[in-house]
Design brief:
This protein has two domains: 145 residues, Rossmann fold (3-Layer(aba) Sandwich), CATH 3.40.50; 119 residues, Rossmann fold (3-Layer(aba) Sandwich). Helix content is 44%, strand content 17%. The chain contains twelve helices and twelve strands. The two termini are 20 Å apart.
């Protein structure tokens, strides 16, 4: 009954932590493609190939349902995967939709036409590849009209977080927020469009100001996954073991993951 969680690096651990708390009875297999991280500066074809390879590895672990806990992969590869590659007996889901549902206050499965929503000015902070894909704006347009989105590509932030350089990560976040606010001085809401960014949520909030509502993904994805598994239990795969897999050096990744989640994590070679 295992479910797969994929990220290019360590950011997806924020999602894993939330879904594990929400669904303690489900074993999760986490796959971090640390050898090829970060994805945010890669081409879409490269991201597609790497994400498919990781997904196949999780299928081999008995995970018929795989969550792309990586906004870059969700933005650059998911639609193509679902339309051309994923077989009928498997499912691959992304992390954008739960976020947009919360932002637009629409329930899952609400297929009514797009409508005006309360929030009109949204700041999106994401990797360069996610921003370039315009996937967030595309998904938002299915559900809402009249929303102005200003996107800021946050180069360097993922690298700094992965390397454990909190001082640099905080400085970069403040710089990116300042750059966005020059173009959108008064955002009403901010979307953290990368699963690494919840670790810097307090810095984003402080730089944006208390009046800006900051949306982060982990808990939203956990609730959406619980709802999905209730409706579609047939996609809970045959796997029974929780594991942590990486394409990087297991000892190094384990050490950084333990710091990341503040609990002991042991990765194995994928």
């Amino acid at each position: 009954m295992a479910v797969g969680i994929f990220d290019s690096g360590l950011g997806g651990l924020t999602v894993l932590d939330a879904v594990t708390r929400r669904l303690p009875q489900v074993p999760f297999v986490y796959f971090g493609d640390n050898a090829h991280a970060p994805y945010g500066v890669r081409t879409h074809d490269d991201i597609f190939d790497l994400t498919c390879a990781a997904t196949e590895r999780l299928w081999a672990e008995g995970c018929d349902l795989v969550i792309l806990a990586c906004n870059t992969a969700s933005a650059a590869a998911l639609k193509r995967m679902q339309e051309t590659w994923v077989p009928a007996d498997k499912r691959v889901l992304g992390v954008f939709v739960p976020l947009i549902e919360a932002l637009t206050e629409r329930q899952w499965g609400d297929n009514s036409p797009p409508r005006e929503v309360a929030v009109k000015h949204v700041a999106l902070f994401a990797t360069p590849a996610t921003v370039a894909s315009r996937a967030f704006q595309r998904e938002l347009a299915f559900r809402a009209i009249g929303v102005d989105v200003e996107a800021q590509p946050c180069g360097g932030v993922v690298d700094a977080i992965e390397q454990g350089d909190e001082i640099l990560a905080e400085a970069l976040v403040r710089s990116h927020v300042e750059a966005l606010k020059r173009r959108m001085p008064n955002p009403e809401a901010a979307v953290l469009g990368c699963t690494h960014y919840p670790l810097m949520q307090h810095v984003f909030q402080a730089a944006l100001g208390p009046e800006v509502k900051v949306y982060s993904q982990a808990n939203l994805v956990a609730e959406s996954l619980a709802d999905y598994l209730t409706r579609r239990p047939e996609f809970v795969g045959p796997g029974t073991r929780a594991r942590f897999l990486t394409t990087g050096d297991p000892d190094s990744v384990s050490s950084r993951a333990t710091q990341f989640l503040r609990r002991k994590i042991r990765f194995e070679a994928a």
